[in-house]
Design a protein that fits this description.
Blueprint: H1 9-51, E1 55-60, E2 70-80, E3 83-97, E4 100-104, E5 116-118, E6 123-125, E7 132-133, E8 139-141, E9 150-151, E10 153-156, E11 159-163
Antiparallel strand pairs: 1-11, 2-3, 3-4, 4-9, 5-6, 6-7, 7-8, 10-11
Amino acid sequence: MEETGIVTDDDNGSGRRRFLIWATGILVSFSGMIVGIPLIGSIIGSSFRTAKTNWITVGDVGALPIGQPVNLKVVDNNVDAYVREPVIRHLWAVKHSNADVTVLSPICTHLGCQFNWNPASGHFECPCHGSIYAADGTVLGGPAPRRLDTLPTRIENGRLFVEWKQFRSGTSDKVPA
Ligand code: FES
């Protein structure tokens, strides 16, 4: 059939179809970007978050007495989603030498109360249900299911750093909370 140059209904229909296919493709691509970009961001973000550590500067190791538990008040940064706020942590440090310090979590392994050092008895004592621990954290009495939790430490140029971690109470194994 010879081309007449006259626009027919069929020509208009296929033009509309082409336009609709093109517009749908753009819309689908755009929707994919809207869903995909935050998803990729959250996957990448979460892998960075799990790799993050939380080292806190404690201070000069030389200032700690040898063999005597010391309650340390340190400032940690609590990061919850995108909110960062300072939190005071109370830790127990027992120095063995300027190159060796044990830092204990302040949380009783029984049900999570805060225990204290009793200089008269030379033990850590929990006021809640009577768990008793030696200065190195081993259980001496009471319902505590495991020794006190030690925290990772490092000493650089005479300064002590500790990594804050929390563990589940009431279990015989040291499991992250
Ligand atoms: Fe410490 Fe129960 S919470 S003994």
